[in-house]
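Retry 2 of 3 after timeout on previous attempt. Resubmitting structure tokens to design endpoint.
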């Protein structure tokens, strides 16, 4: 990286634009940046840092970058031109600032701005790259390969910081080196290892807690069979898994022994129970056979007692079987008798509806009478049609009468309306003529109406503008008077200020400064402000008041001119006629126009009424003619209908007889036919059923005699219904079955043999079997409990073994992570020097820095001193960041804090240069062609100063330049290329002198 040009405006102590040409200063390789204290030497370096990174070094952050010497309209700006990585760039940055508002008073804040441009040699022009703060920052950081903190330590070498670095302890050195070499990733590794160790420890403890929980469950499942207590360990203790598994093995072995004992006891109890059950079954069988034999003897005695009833039931069943042969004849006779009773009842009901003349008539006579009435009914069919025709004639005759009355009404109404039409038509024509005359008058008045209204409006405007003109004239006179008074007041104030201007000028005089009027630097008797002194602000206020008043006067005069022009225009249009006279004329025109419009509005209505009247006249004349034709045609039709009606009425009078109508007579005859026919049918049915009943009685008597009964009644009494037959048969079958069962039991050999034995003792055998069964259940319960205990212990043991296997890799991972974490944190016994990982990395960097610094320190100290890195611990602190100096004169190694002031300077300078080389190499080998060294040279003697300058001069190799920031006078004679900062009351300025 090489700096070419720096331009500073309103930055720090520089109130105006200042430019530094680094190409000219760097031509000699070594240049001096000097000036009095507070002139702004460090501000030049701040401007370089601000241009690159948008902020100044950390020690000077937080303050305002804007120069207090700059004018309000000058914006703070820093522009740096440099070459980095073979690219020539220009950086321009402007911090936020408050500038005066372009309109009005006060200030407004503008945001910070940045520009990045690149020079293209092919076109010999600058190309814009970005205006984004973030993009520019990322681009510069990537090109330089250094952060702002690294840049300030490597390029802007602050000697005071490195002197403190030499005397600092390991903790302070670690903080500085950590910022420079960005070892946060190693600290993050330490933290990550600690987090992994804690996480793994938590998982291991959780697994151990689960394992202990399973152990307690195993203890609960084992009960009191294990005398050995659980191991008294907590989660995370070594050997916990082995102790738990060992206790579980003992518990399982004891549980299996108990299970074997319980199994043997259960087998013995089951054998005893089987023997007791067999004895019990034998006793129960003997008792059953004895009870069976006794019950059979009792049942045989009962059968003997009931034998008489059984024989009676058998005889009853035999008579019922014989009566079954007579049952069909009995059923037929009962059905025939029922049918005969129904037929006789129907005949009685039918004859009761007939006249008394048919009371003794037989079926044949009733049928003949029915046929005679039917013949008479057939002769009335023609009379029914004539009766329907007569009803149609009556309806048609009534319709003709109604039409005749309607036609007469039409004729009368048409005659009346037509007689009045001529008068109505003449009236309508008169209305039409009057409306047409009114429409013509309305058109003439409309032409006169609009000009009259315009003249009236102009007259009213004329009167209003005349009043406005008078008021505006008075306002113009008043504003002119106020403007004259304000001008006079302003002139008076201005004169008073001019009279006291000497005191105002004297207020800005300072001792030793020339007077703005006479140029004298001594001011023995400056003028003093008296009471009532008028300053510049008072004069400006008076001038502003006069300008406002004059502006108001001009505005009032303009308004008066506008009003006068409008008054002239209104007068020209309205004339000199008074407004009241014009209003009366307009009102009269409006009245006549309204009246004419009202009269003309009835024209359309009158025309429409005339047209509709003509149409109505034509319609009524046609209706009158149509009604007259209808009346003439209906006379012949009415006479024809009257003749046909008289003929039909005569015919119907003969047909209906004493009935009210033919239909009524027909209904009477139809009812007589139906009654006679029904009576004849019921008489024939009753005769038939009587004959069938007689035949059924003969067949029943014959069937009863053949079955062995004296009378049909005896056969009916012996007959059983289905329910009684089934019940009797059931009783007979049950007797036979019971008798056979009793004989079979009494004939059994085992039963008879058991009856010969003494009574069996079932209760004793049952008690013995119950005792054996209880012992089996107790043994089985004991065995089941032992089996469940074994199964539960096996399950919990398997779970514990699985947990131990699962925790095995986790324990190994925890041991490995814990070993790495303690090693990286410096707390492990394996870490002999108690050095953290980050300290170890920084120690390696410090060792590189010490090696790079030694090559320059030996030249500066004439080969006496060598910087070495030390791993020794200081007190109770950690080791790794110790820094010692080896004195070749004494051959001893001592701490850098024992160096003198001058020795500390060139040792810190060598350390700073070595650090710059190491940081540069780490940044990717970006070449730093421009370096700055700040202060510390005043502590050196002439010989040491020459040696230091020789070392610095050697930095010019390969076109590198070094800028020394110092106010030591001897350096001005030794270094020809200089950049001087000169401070003054209006701000600092730069003066540049090249090597040539």
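Retry 2 succeeded. Sequence:
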């Amino acid at each position: 990286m090489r700096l070419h040009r720096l331009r500073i405006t309103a930055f720090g102590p520089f109130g105006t634009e200042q430019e530094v040409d680094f190409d000219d200063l760097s031509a000699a390789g070594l240049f001096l940046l000097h000036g009095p204290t507070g002139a702004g030497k460090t501000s030049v370096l701040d401007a370089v840092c601000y241009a690159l990174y948008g902020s100044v070094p950390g020690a000077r952050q937080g303050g305002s970058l804007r120069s207090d010497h700059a004018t309000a309209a000058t914006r703070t700006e820093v522009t740096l031109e440099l070459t980095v990585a073979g690219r020539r760039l220009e950086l321009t940055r402007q911090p936020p600032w408050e500038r005066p508002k372009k309109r009005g008073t006060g200030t407004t804040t503008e945001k910070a701005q940045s520009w990045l441009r690149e020079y293209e040699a092919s076109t010999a022009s600058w190309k814009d790259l970005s205006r984004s703060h973030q993009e520019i920052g990322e681009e510069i950081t990537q090109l330089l390969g250094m952060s702002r903190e690294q840049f300030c330590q490597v390029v802007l070498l602050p000697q005071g910081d490195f002197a403190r670095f030499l005397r600092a302890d390991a903790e302070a050195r670690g903080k500085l080196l950590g910022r420079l070499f960005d070892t946060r990733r190693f600290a993050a590794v330490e933290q990550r290892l600690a987090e992994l160790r804690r996480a793994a420890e938590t998982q291991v403890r959780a697994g151990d807690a689960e394992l202990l929980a399973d152990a307690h469950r195993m203890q609960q499942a084992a009960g009191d069979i294990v005398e050995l207590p659980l191991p008294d360990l907590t989660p995370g203790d070594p050997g916990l898994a082995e102790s738990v598994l060992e206790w579980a093995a003992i518990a399982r072995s004891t549980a299996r022994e108990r299970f074997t004992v319980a199994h043997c006891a259960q087998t013995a109890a089951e054998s005893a129970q089987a023997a007791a059950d067999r004895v019990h079954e034998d006793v129960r069988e003997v008792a059953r056979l004895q009870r069976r034999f006794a019950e059979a003897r009792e049942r045989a005695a009962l059968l003997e007692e009931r034998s008489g009833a059984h024989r009676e039931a058998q005889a009853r069943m035999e008579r019922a079987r014989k009566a079954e042969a007579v049952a069909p004849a009995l059923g037929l006779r009962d059905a025939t008798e029922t049918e005969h009773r129904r037929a006789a009842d129907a005949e009685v009901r039918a004859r009761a509806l007939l006249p008394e003349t048919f009371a003794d008539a037989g079926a044949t006579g009733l049928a003949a009478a029915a046929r005679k009435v039917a013949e008479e009914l057939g002769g009335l069919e023609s009379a029914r049609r004539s009766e329907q025709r007569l009803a149609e004639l009556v309806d048609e005759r009534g319709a003709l009468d109604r039409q005749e009355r309607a036609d007469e009404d039409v004729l009368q109404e048409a005659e009346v309306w037509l007689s009045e039409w001529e008068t109505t038509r003449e009236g309508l024509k008169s209305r039409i003529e009057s409306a047409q005359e009114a429409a013509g008058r309305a058109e003439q008045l409309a032409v006169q109406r609009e000009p009259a209204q315009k003249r009236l409006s102009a007259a009213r405007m004329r009167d209003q503008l005349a009043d406005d003109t008078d008021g505006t004239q008075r306002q113009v006179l008043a504003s002119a008077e106020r403007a004259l008074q304000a001008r006079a007041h302003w002139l008076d104030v201005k004169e008073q200020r001019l009279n006291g201007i000497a005191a105002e000028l004297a207020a800005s005089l300072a001792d030793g400064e020339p007077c703005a009027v006479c140029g004298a630097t001594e001011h023995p008797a400056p003028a003093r402000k008296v009471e009532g002194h008028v300053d510049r602000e008072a004069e400006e206020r008076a001038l502003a008041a006069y300008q406002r008043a004059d502006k108001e006067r001009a505005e009032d005069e303009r308004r008066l001119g506008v009003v006068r022009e409008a008054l002239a225009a209104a007068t020209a249009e309205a004339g000199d006629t008074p407004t009241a006279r014009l209003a009366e004329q307009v009102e009269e025109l409006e009245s006549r126009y309204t009246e004419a419009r009202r009269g003309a509005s009835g024209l359309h209505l009158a025309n429409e009424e005339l047209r509709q009247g003509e149409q109505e006249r034509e319609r009524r004349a046609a209706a009158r003619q149509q009604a007259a034709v209808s009346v003439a045609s209906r006379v012949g039709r009415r006479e024809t209908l009257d003749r046909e009606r008289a003929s039909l009425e005569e015919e119907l009078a003969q047909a209906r007889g004493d009935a009210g109508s033919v239909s009524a007579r027909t209904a009477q005859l139809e009812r007589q036919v139906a009654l006679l026919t029904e009576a004849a049918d019921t008489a024939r049915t009753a005769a038939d059923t009587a004959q069938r009943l007689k035949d059924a009685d003969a067949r029943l008597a014959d069937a009863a005699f053949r079955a062995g009964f004296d009378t049909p009644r005896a056969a009916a009494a012996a007959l059983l219904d289905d329910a009684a037959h089934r019940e009797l048969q059931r009783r007979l079958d049950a007797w036979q079955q019971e008798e056979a069962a009793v004989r079979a039991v009494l004939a059994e050999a085992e039963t008879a043999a058991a009856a010969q034995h003494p009574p069996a003792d079932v209760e004793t055998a049952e008690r013995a079997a119950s005792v054996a069964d209880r012992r089996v259940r107790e043994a089985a319960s004991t065995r089941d409990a032992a089996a469940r205990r074994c199964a539960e212990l096996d399950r919990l043991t398997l779970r514990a073994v699985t947990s131990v296997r699962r925790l095995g890799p986790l324990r190994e991972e925890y041991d490995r992570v814990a070993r790495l974490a303690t090693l990286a944190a410096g707390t492990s016994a394996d870490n002999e020097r108690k050095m953290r990982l980050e300290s170890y990395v920084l120690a390696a960097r410090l060792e590189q820095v010490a090696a790079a610094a030694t090559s320059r320190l030996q030249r500066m100290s004439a080969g006496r001193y060598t910087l070495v890195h030390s791993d020794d611990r200081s007190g109770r602190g950690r080791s790794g960041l110790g820094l010692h100096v080896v004195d070749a004169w004494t051959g001893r190694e001592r701490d850098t804090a024992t160096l003198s002031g001058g020795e500390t300077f060139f040792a810190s300078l060598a350390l700073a240069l070595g650090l710059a080389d190491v940081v540069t190499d780490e940044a990717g080998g970006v070449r730093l062609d421009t370096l700055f060294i700040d202060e510390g040279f005043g502590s050196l003697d002439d010989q040491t100063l020459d040696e230091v300058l020789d070392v610095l001069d050697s930095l010019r190799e390969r076109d590198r330049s070094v800028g020394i920031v110092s106010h030591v006078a001897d350096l001005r004679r030794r270094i020809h290329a200089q950049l001087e900062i000169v401070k003054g009351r209006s701000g600092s300025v730069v003066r540049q002198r090249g090597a040539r």
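Attempt log closed. The chain is about 70% helix and 10% strand.
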